[in-house]
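Problem: given the chain below (253 residues), write out its structure.
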Amino acid sequence: MSRIRQPIINSTMVTLLLMLLSTVSFSGYSGVRPERTREIVELKPKEHQVDVENSSSSPYMVQVWMETLQGERKKIPIVVTPPIFRIDGNSKGGVKVLPVVDALPKERESVYLLVFQEIPKKTDGDKNALRIAVRTKIKLIVRPEQLNKLDISKQFEKVTWQLVERGEKLLLKADNPTPFNFAITDFEYQKDGKLNALSDVFVNLSPYSDYELAVSREKLEKGRLTFNYAYINDFGGVSGLTTQQIDVEEVAQ
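Solution.
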């Protein structure tokens, strides 16, 4: 019978931690957050309002900026105003975003991150307080007007999957031939009647691009990979679940 090994706790570390907690007080997390998890902005010279809510009783200063999906801040063709604003407790506020039309693609969606960072108010009683600045990111999708004529769910059906062998690696490759960005969710494979996560990283399919994910052969069942997936829609909800099966015989060299 195997024994469960208990973690070794250093008594000196515990003592130091207790001493630290006895001299430092923690200010509470605030309730400042955007009202939506994503914003769809039309590609036109018109400001778009992004609403923010402060559900706490304390006022906050909030700093706002744009990032790429890779976390870069330089040369992003979207103007955010104001870059810093105050929001009172139990109230609502917001910022406006304005796309620079001539600097953005007109045949496909462009995806960025809109970042909100709180600047906690410092008071005289906060000398020993550990103030935590919470940062929240939401997706901001700039959509050309001509794409509004297309059915996104029908476009998602055009995404194709295949198993690709590259050396000793087995890759699951997704190809997105559409002008839309798809955030994949509920990404699970089926084996022995159970569902397991197919990926422990967030999968984002950019327009007119492909995505490769390493897959262990242990996830196959009877020479076949069976997996489910869905995408997050414009309202932050989840689309209907799609099930895909790929046989090993279909592996592309």
